[in-house]
């Protein structure tokens, strides 16, 4: 689905504040509520809008440590990757996981309370996965930019 300029404006506004009422959203884009609601529903049905969430402040929740872990797997097969994916999906500390091209097979982003929790995670989880060969970790010193809104 290709978005027209009005849909882009609606989506940009919803990415910043998904709690906007249909009336408030319509007012901001200069249209009446019914057609505005239909545009939102079209984007939902097309899967462009996947859902609505509350963004939590990880610092206030005690998750002040952000760690990126690059993982190299022992073998490259569908079975190995499928098993690794299933195990990783079971851990809440892993907030993002990507399969990559190049020397690193997967990249994990973790949010944890502190470095001790990261050590526990590595020793009790990641390093016990038989498919994992080598890991390299980077601890974020500070967050410079973290946006949830996609560029439109």
TrEMBL record:
A Pfam family this chain is assigned to: AsnC_trans_reg
Keywords from the UniProt entry: DNA-binding, Transcription, Transcription regulation
Limits of the HTH asnC-type domain: 3-64
Superkingdom of the organism of origin: Bacteria
SMART domains for the chain: HTH_ARSR (SM00418), HTH_ASNC (SM00344)
Keyword Ubl conjugation among record annotations: no
Matches recorded under PANTHER family: LEUCINE-RESPONSIVE REGULATORY PROTEIN, TRANSCRIPTIONAL REGULATOR AZLB
Protein name listed in UniProt: Lrp/AsnC family transcriptional regulator
Gene source species: Thauera sedimentorum
